[in-house]
Amino acid sequence: MRFKHFLTVIFIILIPLIIGMYFPQTVDWGRGVSVSIIQPFLEGVRALTHWTEKQKELVAGLFHLREENERLTKEVESFEQQKVALKEAQQENVRLRHLLDFQRSSKWQALSAQVIGRDLSHWTNDVVINKGAQDGIKLDMPIVNGDGLVGKVIQVAPRASKVILLIDAESRASALVQETRDAGLAEGDGKPFLKMTYLDLHSDIKVGNTVVTSGLGGIYPKGIPIGEIIQIAEDNQKLSLSAVVKPYVAFSKLEEVLCLVVDRPNDAASLTDSF
After folding, report:
1. What backbone phi and psi angles, to 5 degrees, belong to 30?
2. Where is coiled-coil annotated (predicted)?
3. What is the pLDDT of residues 127-140, one digit of tens each?
4. Distance from C-alpha of 268 to C-alpha of 254, rounded to nearest angstrom
5. Distance, CA of 237 to CA of 40 (rounded, Å)
6. How far apart are CA 257 and CA 41, in angstroms?
7. The dihedral of CA 198, 201, 206, 209: what is its sign?
8. Strand partners, 186
9. Do residues 227 and 148 make contact, with C-beta atoms less than 8 angstroms apart?
């Protein structure tokens, strides 16, 4: 049995050799057929290999693009944060320069402070500043900013103070029309505008005139800007004039203020420890 298998193997090996020796054209034809059959398969394998390599390159490129996109996104976010911080610093610089100009042009010493809290409800209009008794703040100390009169200190704690704004319904300030020198009282009513009362019925005040503090009353020194007259009317009894005054100070945007150190005779202002 084994001998038959051996003969079969010898036969299979010898037949191609005999055919190649005596019929070389047949061998060439067989090679051509084999190549024709195998070539499409080889081309397919080569194309598949090429496509696979391209896909690998594409995937690698996508991962690279994703990483680059994440990096650029972080850079853009960082740039936007820096841009916002720079703009905030520029605006703060403008406000502080404006405040410094006011301080330089005034004759009073002043302590700078920042607004750290506010209550602008319908009932009260006050803010809290970050300076208190330990910093030299006293009751009734006038508060201003670069635009004009803000209000006065009504409560003092060791490291903070409460300031009532000029537009509060409980606020009053002796005032003067700068152009005509007519005196009156600037009053708040909780609204954005002030009312100046007790003006002379025959006064020559006009819309557009400037209102400043008169220095009377012992709280606010003379000459601090308050606002501009935008409306004039007679009172109900027609005994005096009243005027609507638009404040120079934007009370809803207060951030930095100055606390004026004003010498007052017999200053008996006391300090409170808490609000």
Report:
1. -65, -40
2. 62-106
3. 999 999 999 999 99
4. 29
5. 112
6. 86
7. negative
8. 173, 196
9. yes
Question: End of a domain among 81, 99, 117?
Answer: 81
Backbone angles phi, psi at 65, to 5 degrees: -60, -40
E strands within 60-193?
109-120, 125-129, 142-145, 148-156, 161-165, 172-177, 183-187
Cα gap 230→196, rounded to integer Å? 11
Residue 256: how many CB atoms within 10 A of its CB? 16
Domain C-terminal end among 41, 65, 81? 81
Q: Where are the beta strands (DSSP E) in the chain?
A: 109-120, 125-129, 142-145, 148-156, 161-165, 172-177, 183-187, 194-200, 210-213, 225-234, 240-247, 256-261
Range of 42's domain? Answer: 24-81
Residue 201 dihedral angles phi and psi, to the nearest 5°: -60, -30
Give the span between the Cα atoms of 150 and 163, in whole angstroms: 9
196 and 63 assigned to the same domain: no
DSSP state of 206: -
The answer to whether residue 13 is domain-embedded is: no
Task: Indicate if the alpha-carbon torsion angle 94, 106, 111, 186 is positive or negative.
Answer: negative
Token readout for 152 is 């006065």
Do 52 and 115 share a domain, yes or no?
no
Confirm if 190 and 168 have CB atoms less than 8 A apart: yes
What residues pair up with 104 in beta bridges, in sequence order? none
For residue 241, give every residue at least 6 positions away whose Cβ sits within 8 Å of its Cβ, in sequence order, or none. Answer: 199, 200, 201, 203, 205, 232, 233, 234, 235
In this prediction the pTM is: 0.64
